[in-house]
Protein backbone atom coordinates (compact mmCIF):
# COMPACT_ATOMS: atom_id res chain seq x y z
CA UNK A 1 0.00 0.00 0.00
CA UNK A 2 1.27 3.47 -0.92
CA UNK A 3 0.12 6.81 0.44
CA UNK A 4 0.91 10.14 -1.24
CA UNK A 5 0.78 13.29 0.87
CA UNK A 6 -0.38 16.58 -0.61
CA UNK A 7 2.84 18.42 -1.43
CA UNK A 8 1.09 21.74 -1.98
CA UNK A 9 -0.35 21.72 1.52
CA UNK A 10 2.83 20.55 3.18
CA UNK A 11 5.31 22.80 1.38
CA UNK A 12 3.25 25.97 1.27
CA UNK A 13 0.95 25.99 4.28
CA UNK A 14 2.89 24.31 7.07
CA UNK A 15 6.08 25.80 8.49
CA UNK A 16 7.05 22.76 10.55
CA UNK A 17 8.84 19.58 9.54
CA UNK A 18 7.48 16.10 10.11
CA UNK A 19 10.60 14.66 11.70
CA UNK A 20 13.31 15.95 13.98
CA UNK A 21 15.79 17.78 11.75
CA UNK A 22 19.06 16.24 10.74
CA UNK A 23 22.26 18.28 10.86
CA UNK A 24 25.76 18.22 9.41
CA UNK A 25 28.82 17.12 11.41
CA UNK A 26 32.22 17.73 9.81
CA UNK A 27 34.53 14.71 9.65
CA UNK A 28 37.32 16.19 7.51
CA UNK A 29 37.92 19.92 7.01
CA UNK A 30 40.00 21.94 4.58
CA UNK A 31 42.88 23.95 6.01
CA UNK A 32 43.52 25.89 2.79
CA UNK A 33 39.99 27.28 2.48
CA UNK A 34 39.38 31.03 2.28
CA UNK A 35 38.95 32.48 5.80
CA UNK A 36 35.77 34.44 6.53
CA UNK A 37 34.03 35.58 9.73
CA UNK A 38 30.25 35.75 10.01
CA UNK A 39 29.35 37.94 12.97
CA UNK A 40 26.26 37.09 15.05
CA UNK A 41 23.29 38.96 13.59
CA UNK A 42 21.81 41.61 15.88
CA UNK A 43 18.12 40.90 16.56
CA UNK A 44 15.77 43.83 17.16
CA UNK A 45 12.01 43.67 17.75
CA UNK A 46 10.49 46.98 16.71
CA UNK A 47 7.66 46.57 19.21
CA UNK A 48 9.25 44.97 22.25
CA UNK A 49 12.96 45.70 22.07
CA UNK A 50 15.52 42.97 21.42
CA UNK A 51 14.32 39.46 20.69
CA UNK A 52 16.10 36.26 19.73
CA UNK A 53 14.89 34.66 16.50
CA UNK A 54 14.18 30.93 16.42
CA UNK A 55 16.84 30.58 13.74
CA UNK A 56 20.46 31.68 14.08
CA UNK A 57 20.91 33.33 10.68
CA UNK A 58 24.66 33.88 11.10
CA UNK A 59 25.22 30.25 12.12
CA UNK A 60 23.31 28.98 9.07
CA UNK A 61 25.33 31.21 6.73
CA UNK A 62 28.64 30.22 8.35
CA UNK A 63 27.70 26.53 8.13
CA UNK A 64 26.72 26.84 4.46
CA UNK A 65 30.00 28.50 3.52
CA UNK A 66 31.96 25.93 5.52
CA UNK A 67 30.04 22.99 4.02
CA UNK A 68 30.95 24.17 0.51
CA UNK A 69 34.64 23.39 1.31
CA UNK A 70 35.59 26.76 -0.21
CA UNK A 71 35.61 28.70 3.07
CA UNK A 72 37.06 28.40 6.55
CA UNK A 73 34.51 30.07 8.80
CA UNK A 74 36.19 31.47 11.88
CA UNK A 75 34.63 30.55 15.29
CA UNK A 76 33.58 34.09 16.24
CA UNK A 77 32.73 33.20 19.86
CA UNK A 78 36.45 33.30 20.66
CA UNK A 79 37.13 36.68 19.07
CA UNK A 80 37.76 39.59 21.47
CA UNK A 81 36.39 42.05 18.89
CA UNK A 82 32.89 41.46 17.47
CA UNK A 83 31.70 44.46 15.46
CA UNK A 84 27.96 44.96 15.00
CA UNK A 85 28.18 47.86 12.54
CA UNK A 86 30.62 49.00 9.88
CA UNK A 87 31.96 51.90 11.95
CA UNK A 88 33.09 49.37 14.60
CA UNK A 89 35.43 47.55 12.20
CA UNK A 90 39.16 47.84 12.95
CA UNK A 91 41.00 46.78 9.76
CA UNK A 92 44.32 46.17 11.57
CA UNK A 93 42.62 43.69 13.91
CA UNK A 94 41.40 41.53 11.00
CA UNK A 95 44.70 41.94 9.14
CA UNK A 96 46.57 40.34 12.05
CA UNK A 97 44.16 37.39 11.93
CA UNK A 98 44.62 37.01 8.18
CA UNK A 99 40.90 37.60 7.59
CA UNK A 100 39.97 39.98 4.78
CA UNK A 101 36.21 39.37 4.65
CA UNK A 102 33.50 39.50 7.29
CA UNK A 103 29.70 39.46 7.30
CA UNK A 104 27.58 41.77 9.44
CA UNK A 105 23.80 41.60 9.70
CA UNK A 106 20.65 42.49 11.58
CA UNK A 107 17.20 40.94 11.88
CA UNK A 108 14.26 43.21 12.70
CA UNK A 109 10.78 42.00 13.51
CA UNK A 110 8.46 44.41 11.72
CA UNK A 111 5.03 45.66 12.78
CA UNK A 112 3.30 42.90 10.75
CA UNK A 113 5.37 40.13 12.30
CA UNK A 114 7.65 39.58 9.31
CA UNK A 115 11.40 39.32 9.76
CA UNK A 116 13.49 41.91 7.92
CA UNK A 117 17.00 40.52 7.41
CA UNK A 118 19.78 42.86 6.29
CA UNK A 119 23.40 41.96 5.71
CA UNK A 120 26.69 43.46 4.52
CA UNK A 121 29.67 41.60 3.07
CA UNK A 122 32.71 43.68 3.96
CA UNK A 123 36.28 43.80 2.71
CA UNK A 124 38.35 44.53 5.82
CA UNK A 125 41.63 44.82 3.91
CA UNK A 126 40.60 48.38 2.98
CA UNK A 127 40.93 51.31 5.34
CA UNK A 128 38.19 52.27 5.83
CA UNK A 129 36.50 48.91 5.33
CA UNK A 130 34.53 48.57 2.10
CA UNK A 131 31.06 47.07 1.58
CA UNK A 132 31.28 44.75 -1.45
CA UNK A 133 27.79 43.24 -1.23
CA UNK A 134 24.58 44.01 0.65
CA UNK A 135 20.93 43.03 0.53
CA UNK A 136 17.74 42.93 2.56
CA UNK A 137 14.85 40.44 2.77
CA UNK A 138 11.41 40.52 4.39
CA UNK A 139 10.14 37.01 5.14
CA UNK A 140 7.70 35.13 7.30
CA UNK A 141 9.15 33.24 10.23
CA UNK A 142 8.86 29.87 8.44
CA UNK A 143 11.16 31.10 5.64
CA UNK A 144 14.04 32.24 7.87
CA UNK A 145 16.27 29.29 7.00
CA UNK A 146 15.54 29.78 3.31
CA UNK A 147 16.46 33.46 3.58
CA UNK A 148 19.73 32.51 5.28
CA UNK A 149 20.52 29.99 2.51
CA UNK A 150 19.74 32.70 -0.07
CA UNK A 151 22.22 35.07 1.58
CA UNK A 152 24.79 32.27 1.57
CA UNK A 153 24.20 31.81 -2.17
CA UNK A 154 24.81 35.51 -2.82
CA UNK A 155 27.99 35.62 -0.73
CA UNK A 156 29.28 32.39 -2.25
CA UNK A 157 28.75 33.62 -5.83
CA UNK A 158 30.26 37.05 -5.10
CA UNK A 159 33.46 35.56 -3.68
CA UNK A 160 33.88 32.51 -5.95
CA UNK A 161 32.04 33.33 -9.18
CA UNK A 162 30.11 30.05 -8.75
CA UNK A 163 26.38 29.95 -8.14
CA UNK A 164 25.52 28.78 -4.63
CA UNK A 165 23.48 25.61 -4.14
CA UNK A 166 22.37 26.16 -0.56
CA UNK A 167 18.71 26.61 -1.52
CA UNK A 168 18.73 23.28 -3.34
CA UNK A 169 17.00 20.35 -1.66
CA UNK A 170 17.61 16.62 -1.50
CA UNK A 171 15.24 13.69 -1.78
CA UNK A 172 15.95 10.30 -0.17
CA UNK A 173 14.34 7.07 0.98
CA UNK A 174 14.03 6.14 4.66
CA UNK A 175 13.39 2.56 5.76
CA UNK A 176 12.25 1.74 9.31
CA UNK A 177 11.21 -1.90 9.77
CA UNK A 178 8.76 -1.52 12.66
CA UNK A 179 6.77 1.36 11.11
CA UNK A 180 3.27 0.85 9.70
CA UNK A 181 4.64 2.25 6.46
CA UNK A 182 8.32 1.26 6.61
CA UNK A 183 9.33 3.01 3.37
CA UNK A 184 9.08 6.79 3.02
CA UNK A 185 10.26 9.25 0.40
CA UNK A 186 11.45 12.48 1.98
CA UNK A 187 12.47 15.92 0.79
CA UNK A 188 14.67 18.15 2.95
CA UNK A 189 17.02 21.11 2.76
CA UNK A 190 20.48 20.05 1.61
CA UNK A 191 21.71 20.16 5.22
CA UNK A 192 18.96 17.84 6.47
CA UNK A 193 16.61 20.43 7.97
CA UNK A 194 12.91 20.82 7.12
CA UNK A 195 12.26 17.16 6.36
CA UNK A 196 8.93 16.43 4.69
CA UNK A 197 7.51 13.01 3.81
CA UNK A 198 5.92 13.06 0.35
CA UNK A 199 5.13 9.35 -0.05
CA UNK A 200 5.03 6.32 2.25
CA UNK A 201 4.46 2.68 1.49
CA UNK A 202 4.44 -0.82 2.90
CA UNK A 203 6.52 -1.88 -0.12
CA UNK A 204 10.01 -0.73 -1.13
CA UNK A 205 10.59 2.69 -2.70
CA UNK A 206 13.79 3.24 -4.69
CA UNK A 207 15.81 5.54 -6.96
CA UNK A 208 14.17 8.99 -6.70
CA UNK A 209 15.16 11.42 -9.49
CA UNK A 210 14.29 15.12 -9.81
CA UNK A 211 13.13 16.74 -12.99
CA UNK A 212 15.42 19.61 -13.99
CA UNK A 213 12.64 22.17 -13.35
CA UNK A 214 12.21 20.85 -9.80
CA UNK A 215 8.49 20.24 -10.27
CA UNK A 216 8.45 16.43 -10.33
CA UNK A 217 10.20 13.40 -8.85
CA UNK A 218 10.32 10.00 -10.56
CA UNK A 219 10.94 6.89 -8.47
CA UNK A 220 10.48 3.11 -8.30
CA UNK A 221 7.68 1.55 -6.27
CA UNK A 222 6.72 -2.09 -5.65
CA UNK A 223 3.15 -1.31 -4.61
CA UNK A 224 1.69 -3.51 -7.36
CA UNK A 225 3.81 -6.51 -6.39
CA UNK A 226 6.66 -5.81 -8.80
CA UNK A 227 8.73 -2.77 -9.72
CA UNK A 228 7.12 0.07 -11.64
CA UNK A 229 8.09 3.66 -12.41
CA UNK A 230 5.96 6.57 -11.27
CA UNK A 231 6.24 10.35 -11.52
CA UNK A 232 4.95 12.51 -8.68
CA UNK A 233 4.07 16.19 -9.17
CA UNK A 234 5.22 18.03 -6.06
CA UNK A 235 2.71 20.88 -6.03
CA UNK A 236 -0.31 18.57 -6.14
CA UNK A 237 1.01 15.24 -4.87
CA UNK A 238 -0.47 13.56 -7.97
CA UNK A 239 1.27 10.26 -8.87
CA UNK A 240 1.25 8.99 -12.46
CA UNK A 241 2.33 5.48 -13.37
CA UNK A 242 4.52 5.75 -16.48
CA UNK A 243 6.27 2.35 -16.87
CA UNK A 244 4.88 -0.97 -15.70
CA UNK A 245 6.24 -3.78 -17.89
CA UNK A 246 6.79 -7.36 -16.70
CA UNK A 247 10.01 -8.02 -14.77
CA UNK A 248 12.26 -5.09 -13.79
CA UNK A 249 11.45 -1.39 -14.29
CA UNK A 250 14.02 0.91 -12.70
CA UNK A 251 16.62 3.69 -12.59
CA UNK A 252 14.64 6.67 -13.92
CA UNK A 253 16.52 9.79 -15.07
CA UNK A 254 14.96 12.97 -16.50
CA UNK A 255 16.75 14.63 -19.43
CA UNK A 256 18.10 18.15 -18.70
CA UNK A 257 15.42 19.70 -20.94
CA UNK A 258 12.64 17.74 -19.14
CA UNK A 259 11.36 16.35 -22.45
CA UNK A 260 12.48 12.75 -21.94
CA UNK A 261 13.07 10.22 -19.22
CA UNK A 262 15.56 7.33 -19.46
CA UNK A 263 15.20 4.10 -17.50
CA UNK A 264 16.14 0.41 -17.48
CA UNK A 265 13.81 -2.48 -18.36
CA UNK A 266 14.31 -6.25 -18.39
CA UNK A 267 11.20 -7.12 -20.36
CA UNK A 268 13.32 -8.84 -23.04
CA UNK A 269 15.39 -10.80 -20.50
CA UNK A 270 18.55 -8.78 -19.88
CA UNK A 271 18.52 -5.18 -18.67
CA UNK A 272 18.51 -2.53 -21.40
CA UNK A 273 18.10 1.22 -21.55
CA UNK A 274 14.95 2.85 -22.87
CA UNK A 275 13.85 6.44 -23.43
CA UNK A 276 10.31 7.80 -23.14
CA UNK A 277 9.18 11.02 -24.82
CA UNK A 278 7.18 12.62 -22.01
CA UNK A 279 4.87 14.54 -24.34
CA UNK A 280 3.86 11.66 -26.62
CA UNK A 281 4.49 8.75 -24.25
CA UNK A 282 6.46 6.97 -26.99
CA UNK A 283 9.11 4.54 -25.69
CA UNK A 284 12.27 3.74 -27.64
CA UNK A 285 14.83 1.04 -26.82
CA UNK A 286 18.36 2.47 -26.66
CA UNK A 287 20.71 -0.45 -25.93
CA UNK A 288 20.08 -3.77 -27.62
CA UNK A 289 22.36 -6.51 -26.34
CA UNK A 290 22.41 -9.40 -23.88
CA UNK A 291 24.47 -7.51 -21.31
CA UNK A 292 22.99 -5.72 -18.32
CA UNK A 293 22.71 -1.99 -19.05
CA UNK A 294 21.28 0.25 -16.34
CA UNK A 295 21.65 3.42 -14.19
CA UNK A 296 21.43 6.09 -16.92
CA UNK A 297 22.66 9.64 -16.27
CA UNK A 298 22.25 12.38 -18.87
CA UNK A 299 24.98 14.64 -20.19
CA UNK A 300 23.98 18.34 -20.33
CA UNK A 301 23.72 18.25 -24.15
CA UNK A 302 20.56 16.06 -23.98
CA UNK A 303 22.20 13.79 -26.60
CA UNK A 304 24.41 11.48 -24.55
CA UNK A 305 23.86 9.22 -21.56
CA UNK A 306 26.39 7.66 -19.18
CA UNK A 307 25.34 4.27 -17.85
CA UNK A 308 26.52 1.06 -16.19
CA UNK A 309 27.10 -2.03 -18.34
CA UNK A 310 28.78 -5.41 -17.84
CA UNK A 311 29.32 -5.85 -21.58
CA UNK A 312 33.07 -6.04 -20.94
CA UNK A 313 32.70 -8.64 -18.18
CA UNK A 314 32.72 -6.49 -15.03
CA UNK A 315 30.41 -3.47 -14.61
CA UNK A 316 31.98 -0.29 -15.99
CA UNK A 317 30.78 3.15 -17.12
CA UNK A 318 29.90 3.69 -20.77
CA UNK A 319 28.59 6.59 -22.82
CA UNK A 320 25.98 6.27 -25.56
CA UNK A 321 24.71 8.73 -28.17
CA UNK A 322 20.91 8.51 -28.06
CA UNK A 323 20.60 9.36 -31.78
CA UNK A 324 23.31 7.16 -33.30
CA UNK A 325 23.64 4.54 -30.52
CA UNK A 326 27.45 4.92 -30.71
CA UNK A 327 29.01 3.56 -27.50
CA UNK A 328 32.24 4.58 -25.74
CA UNK A 329 33.74 3.07 -22.59
CA UNK A 330 34.65 5.73 -20.02
CA UNK A 331 35.90 4.05 -16.81
CA UNK A 332 38.83 1.69 -16.35
CA UNK A 333 39.59 1.97 -12.60
CA UNK A 334 40.32 -1.41 -10.97
CA UNK A 335 37.68 -4.15 -10.51
CA UNK A 336 34.41 -2.39 -11.40
CA UNK A 337 32.58 0.93 -11.53
CA UNK A 338 28.86 1.65 -11.60
CA UNK A 339 26.08 4.14 -10.86
CA UNK A 340 27.48 7.13 -12.81
CA UNK A 341 26.33 10.67 -12.09
CA UNK A 342 27.32 13.25 -14.70
CA UNK A 343 28.10 16.78 -13.50
CA UNK A 344 25.84 19.55 -14.81
CA UNK A 345 28.74 20.97 -16.85
CA UNK A 346 29.66 17.57 -18.29
CA UNK A 347 33.28 17.73 -17.12
CA UNK A 348 33.31 14.87 -14.60
CA UNK A 349 31.42 11.83 -13.38
CA UNK A 350 30.91 10.59 -9.84
CA UNK A 351 30.56 6.80 -9.65
CA UNK A 352 30.72 3.84 -7.28
CA UNK A 353 33.97 1.86 -7.37
CA UNK A 354 34.14 -1.75 -6.13
CA UNK A 355 37.55 -3.15 -5.21
CA UNK A 356 38.88 -5.66 -2.66
CA UNK A 357 35.58 -6.06 -0.85
CA UNK A 358 34.95 -2.35 -0.42
CA UNK A 359 32.68 0.05 -2.25
CA UNK A 360 33.63 3.72 -2.45
CA UNK A 361 32.79 6.94 -4.27
CA UNK A 362 35.17 7.68 -7.15
CA UNK A 363 35.57 10.60 -9.54
CA UNK A 364 36.26 10.37 -13.26
CA UNK A 365 37.61 13.59 -14.79
CA UNK A 366 36.31 13.59 -18.37
CA UNK A 367 38.77 16.29 -19.44
CA UNK A 368 41.92 14.45 -18.32
CA UNK A 369 40.71 10.85 -17.99
CA UNK A 370 41.97 10.71 -14.40
CA UNK A 371 40.07 8.40 -12.03
CA UNK A 372 40.44 8.69 -8.24
CA UNK A 373 38.73 7.22 -5.17
CA UNK A 374 37.45 9.93 -2.78
CA UNK A 375 36.05 7.95 0.18
CA UNK A 376 37.31 5.19 2.47
CA UNK A 377 34.33 3.30 3.90
CA UNK A 378 32.90 -0.20 3.79
CA UNK A 379 29.96 0.54 1.52
CA UNK A 380 29.28 3.86 -0.24
CA UNK A 381 26.50 4.09 -2.78
CA UNK A 382 24.25 6.30 -4.95
CA UNK A 383 26.29 9.53 -5.29
CA UNK A 384 24.44 12.66 -6.38
CA UNK A 385 26.18 15.87 -7.42
CA UNK A 386 25.06 19.30 -6.23
CA UNK A 387 23.70 21.46 -9.06
CA UNK A 388 26.73 23.78 -8.83
CA UNK A 389 29.14 20.81 -8.93
CA UNK A 390 30.86 21.58 -5.61
CA UNK A 391 29.42 18.87 -3.33
CA UNK A 392 28.27 15.26 -3.48
CA UNK A 393 25.73 13.56 -1.21
CA UNK A 394 25.77 9.76 -0.95
CA UNK A 395 24.64 6.93 1.30
CA UNK A 396 27.22 5.07 3.36
CA UNK A 397 27.64 2.09 5.67
CA UNK A 398 30.87 2.43 7.65
CA UNK A 399 30.89 -1.02 9.27
CA UNK A 400 28.77 -4.16 9.50
CA UNK A 401 26.97 -2.95 12.65
CA UNK A 402 25.53 0.30 11.29
CA UNK A 403 22.68 1.25 8.99
CA UNK A 404 23.05 3.38 5.89
CA UNK A 405 23.34 7.14 6.50
CA UNK A 406 23.89 10.24 4.39
CA UNK A 407 27.35 11.70 3.87
CA UNK A 408 28.53 14.90 2.21
CA UNK A 409 31.83 15.29 0.39
CA UNK A 410 33.35 18.03 -1.73
CA UNK A 411 33.93 17.08 -5.36
CA UNK A 412 37.69 17.34 -4.81
CA UNK A 413 37.42 14.95 -1.84
CA UNK A 414 39.05 17.32 0.68
CA UNK A 415 35.97 18.15 2.76
CA UNK A 416 33.83 15.42 4.33
CA UNK A 417 30.81 15.61 6.61
CA UNK A 418 28.15 13.34 8.09
CA UNK A 419 24.47 14.30 7.99
CA UNK A 420 23.30 13.24 11.46
CA UNK A 421 19.87 12.76 12.97
CA UNK A 422 17.98 10.75 10.37
CA UNK A 423 15.93 7.76 11.49
CA UNK A 424 16.24 4.28 10.05
CA UNK A 425 18.15 3.21 6.97
CA UNK A 426 18.60 6.18 4.62
CA UNK A 427 19.40 5.55 0.97
CA UNK A 428 19.17 6.94 -2.56
CA UNK A 429 19.86 10.64 -1.87
CA UNK A 430 19.50 12.93 -4.88
CA UNK A 431 20.00 16.68 -5.32
CA UNK A 432 17.29 18.92 -6.68
CA UNK A 433 18.01 21.75 -9.17
CA UNK A 434 19.44 24.97 -7.74
CA UNK A 435 16.22 26.15 -6.14
CA UNK A 436 13.03 24.32 -5.20
CA UNK A 437 10.52 26.28 -3.08
From TrEMBL:
Keyword flag Cell division: yes
Name of the coding gene: tolB
The protein's name in its UniProt record: Tol-Pal system protein TolB
Residues covered by the TolB N-terminal domain: 23-127
Subcellular location: Periplasm
Gene3D superfamilies in the cross-refs: TolB, C-terminal domain, TolB, N-terminal domain
Organism: Candidatus Blochmannia vicinus (nom. nud.)
InterPro entries listed in its UniProt record: 6-blade_b-propeller_TolB-like, Tol-Pal_TolB, TolB_N, WD40
Family: Belongs to the TolB family.
Role noted for this protein: Part of the Tol-Pal system, which plays a role in outer membrane invagination during cell division and is important for maintaining outer membrane integrity. TolB occupies a key intermediary position in the Tol-Pal system because it communicates directly with both membrane-embedded components, Pal in the outer membrane and TolA in the inner membrane.
Summary of subunit composition and partner proteins: The Tol-Pal system is composed of five core proteins: the inner membrane proteins TolA, TolQ and TolR, the periplasmic protein TolB and the outer membrane protein Pal. They form a network linking the inner and outer membranes and the peptidoglycan layer.
UniProt xrefs under HAMAP family: TolB
Keyword annotations of the record: Cell cycle, Cell division, Periplasm, Signal
Amino acid sequence: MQISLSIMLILYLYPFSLLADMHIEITCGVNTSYPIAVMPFEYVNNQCGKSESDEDIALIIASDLRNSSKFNTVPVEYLPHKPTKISDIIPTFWEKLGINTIVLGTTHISYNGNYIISYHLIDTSRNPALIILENQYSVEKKWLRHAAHTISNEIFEKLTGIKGAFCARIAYISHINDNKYPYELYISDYDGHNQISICRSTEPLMSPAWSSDGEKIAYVTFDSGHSELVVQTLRTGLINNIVNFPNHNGAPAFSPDCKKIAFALSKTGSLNLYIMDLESGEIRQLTKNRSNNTEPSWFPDNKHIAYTSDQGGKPQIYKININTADIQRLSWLHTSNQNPQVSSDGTFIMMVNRHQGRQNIAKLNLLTGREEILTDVLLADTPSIAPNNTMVVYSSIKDFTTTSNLELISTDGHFKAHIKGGKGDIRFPTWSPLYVK
